[in-house]
Every structure is written in C-alpha cells, then in structure tokens.
Design goal:
globular, 3-stranded mixed β-sheet, 6 helices, alpha/beta, single chain, 16% strand
Length: 216
Amino acid sequence: MRIVVLGGTGQVGRMVVEKLERRSGAAAREFFETTTQRLLEAEKRAGVKHHVVLSIVGADHAGEDGYFAAKGVQENLVRSGPIAHSILRSTQFYDFARQIAEWNTAQDTVHLPPKAVQPVAASDVAEALVDLAMGDPLGGAVDFGGPEQMPLPDFVRRVLRVDHDPRYVVEDAETTTLGFNISGDLLLPRSPQRLASTTLDAWVHEEGRRLVAGIR
C-alpha cells in the first residue's frame, strides 16, 4: 500500500508519518516471521545445509519498531533455526539515495541531518552474497559497506545530481530523518566487516552513462 501524507513535514503530519512507519514495521515483522519460519522448515525437510540472509547494518540494535527491527527479528529466527547460516548486513545501496530524498523533501528542499553513512553498490552486495553462498556457513553475521564514509546530505546530493534533479539538499541537524528508525551511529558497518570496492564516484559515472543511453 502506498499512502501520501499531505503536509507530512508539519507537526501533526510528521506524527502521522511516524505512526504509519511503525505500522509498516509491524507488517514487515509479520512477513519476515511467517516466511522465514516456513522457509527454514522447508529447507530442513529438503536437507539444505546453508541458509544465507541479506539484512541491514544496525538491524540487531534497532529496538522494536520499524523495518530495521523487522530484519532483526528475521536474523534471530535464522540464528535459532535448524540450518547453518550466514548473515550479510549491508549498508544502504547507492540508489537508495533517491528514496531517502523522496521521504525527506519539503517543497523543493531535502532536509537531512549530518549523519555519517557508508553506502554500497548493489552489485557488490550481490557478489558478496554469492561468495557467502559458495563458502562455509559463518554461523553468524558480517557487516558489509562501501569503501568510503560520507555525510548523508552529500551522499544524497551526489546521486540527485546525476539525475539532474533540481531539488536542494541541505544539512539540518534538527530534522528527524524519515526512513531511518535507528540512531546515526548504527548506520555504519561494525566489526566483523567487509568492504566493497565500488566507490560512489564510479557508481555515479556508470549511472550517468546508463542515463544517457536510456537503459536505466
């Protein structure tokens, strides 16, 4: 379901958005609980030896609300399940900057706090998942991020620039970032961790080439 909240940046509007996010988190939690339990049971019957999960950096410290917490529930089910496992906790994908901008735009301006992020190319995440699947189970989780840290506003600004998006991106330490229900210090990969090789500049260059060719 897609819900548009007019005036979502006002006092009441923000409260409405936050409550909707919590309910979406509950739905995500129910989804991950149901599907993960069924999948683990099916894998046990089929004799599967290795269960690989894509999760999110910070999911294990996200509290009780929101999508991050729902992924944490999924992790716990896999950890306590009957199948040997590996969990890859990824940071935000580069192209997720567009969604962050959509969630946090007021009129023609994107307001974002100066949180540090370490985004990653989705292609690098896919390769890391393949490497895990072809190796021995970790029996735990590893964090995975891009090769460089940057302020959240800079990250979003650089991605919007390649789209020729006219919105302004401003640093606003007082704003509450929609789409992140965890504190800023949990958005970065922690040990044990692995780092990808594709920089944001390299990804932006490829996105620009694809945009010109009309193949996005």
